[in-house]
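Is flavin-adenine dinucleotide placement plausible here? Inputs below.
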Amino acid sequence: MWGLLDRLVATGCPPIHTYSFDFGPFTIAGAPGTDKSPFACCPRRTILDKLLVDAAAESGAEIRQGFVVEEILFEDDRAVGIKGRSRHGGSVTEHADVIAGADGRHSMVSEAVCPEQYREKAPLLAGYYSYWSGLPMNGRFESYIRDKRGFAAVPTHDGLTLVIAGWPYAEFEKNKQDIEGSYLKTIELAPAFADRLRSATRQAPFAGTAVPNYFRKPYGPGWALVEDAGYNKDFITAQGILDAFRDAELCATALDESFSGARPFDDAMGEYQHTRDAQVGAMYDFTCELATLEPPPPELQQLLQAAHGNQAAMDGFVRLNAGTISPTEFFAPQNIEAIFAAAASRAHSVGAIGERAP
Ligand SMILES: Cc1cc2nc3c(=O)[nH]c(=O)nc-3n(C[C@H](O)[C@H](O)[C@H](O)COP(=O)(O)OP(=O)(O)OC[C@H]3O[C@@H](n4cnc5c(N)ncnc54)[C@H](O)[C@@H]3O)c2cc1C
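Reply from A.M.:
I modeled the complex. Tokens:
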């Protein structure tokens, strides 16, 4: 949509054509892409961020690399500017009609404006990741879901594979004492993958994190919040960057409507908030449920078992996880009925074949 996919592919980011979810007794595997967007990518942030910064500069944005914002300035209750420090150490003050905080989940702008926060949930999952060489993935994202444990492997730039393993946040403190041991023990829950990892080489220290889940009101007098600063959820469904693109688009459109006088600020930004919440609500709930690492509820287990072996249904589940379709679409009653009906008809024809067998 932003016209940058070709540039990303040209950096050597490997295309991912298959996602697989190994639940132990069975695996759901399918294609994450659609006709319009036929594959997924997992770029290194060092490469993706540079590409985005360059594209923003080409589009006319003034970029100041290495600039640190130290304070948000207010007049009465209105945000009016920032104070910061340039790369060379000089103190700088800037004023603006709107201060947009796209400064991540530790957002200084959010902290300064104290937005209303809703639907919040404390961290659910603790995850640790590293990058491995010698672990070919052949265009596949693989994830393994076990009792209160999960891990995933995905190919990225430079022939490396990102492997992330997680456990419930309640075990964060205990497992922090032995990160490598806890990580490898989690991977051992899928012995065939553990064998593959044994012949690979870890190329980076382990990095770990756990994140809170929240929605924040993303606007107020003189300020706006974008992506993690305004809305965040667990990384288990890996939706954050997709969300960041969507928020940037919605927020920029709203600000443009306000600056051009087409609509009052509160109307335009209220629509940004409403649209964001409507578009991500179902995925937020799905993500928070997955992040508990509890076994799927019985209805979901039955649905996944019914989907197993039905390629269209497996593609649907994979696309839901890739963010190319919404959970509302996958869990729509007609889709669920169609998946169960197809499973019943497969069982019937297998039975019929079985009856004819000598
Ligand atoms: C472990 C983990 C794995 C993840 N995996 C995925 C994944 O596979 N796919 C996916 O889509 N998403 C993933 N995410 C989520 C994704 O990283 C975030 O949702 C996304 O980066 C949010 O973008 P952002 O622009 O809001 O914040 P960020 O990417 O955090 O960017 C914020 C920027 O603001 C800058 N900044 C902050 N404070 C200041 C300041 N005071 N002055 C100047 N600059 C400042 C920071 O330096 C940074 O450059 C993952 C998150 C985690 C924690």
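Short version: The mean pLDDT is 95.
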